[in-house]
Structure of Porin family protein:
Amino acid sequence: MNAFKIGTAALFSAALGGLLAAPALAQQQTTTGRTNDFSYTWLQGGFQTGDVANPDADVDALFFEGSYAFDPNLFLRGGVSFYDGDLNGGSRADVDGERLHLGLGFNTLLQDRLDLVVSGDIVRVRADVEGGGTDRDTGYDLRAGVRHHTAQQVELSGGVFHENVDERDTGVYGEALYKLRPQVDLGARIALGGDASNFGLFGRYNF
């Protein structure tokens, strides 16, 4: 087992421990009334670039996403990505399409300045490959991690993900937010998986 798999397994173990403790943590938050004042209602848009292993391709994407907190511990989330890329190899055929996701998230206070965040999404992907027809797949994306108010204007978050759409993939993700104004953040994010990896920049408006 390589170092990446060992690290991912360790993170999943930590995330599972957090999930098992989540009901008690949520009850504690409800009882004490304490929160970290993170916003879970926002809209964001940005650009990301990355690569996938199957098929072997370099892919760029524009994405638009949103989150709506309908309860102190629960939020709806969803988004769409429009991507365009090239298959690697001799043909350099063009590939484009979109990815839609919609799901539910849970958050609760772990300690001062630190929240546990988990989510599950239904994912729908369409890919058109030049000379190769159209593929459509439906699956899911599961995530578990933490969100930390690291400095007055900086938030950091990270965790693990597992998705099963066209291919199964497991990896780690991270995100950084810099508060430009009370309701406006500039963000960067990265996801590193066995099948796909990407890096993105975005702007977020908090409500």
Observations:
- Strands lie at 42-53, 56-71, 74-87, 94-111, 114-129, 133-151, 154-164, 168-181, 184-193, 196-206.
- Confidence is low (pLDDT under 50) at residues 3-10.
- The first strand starts at residue 42 and ends at 53.
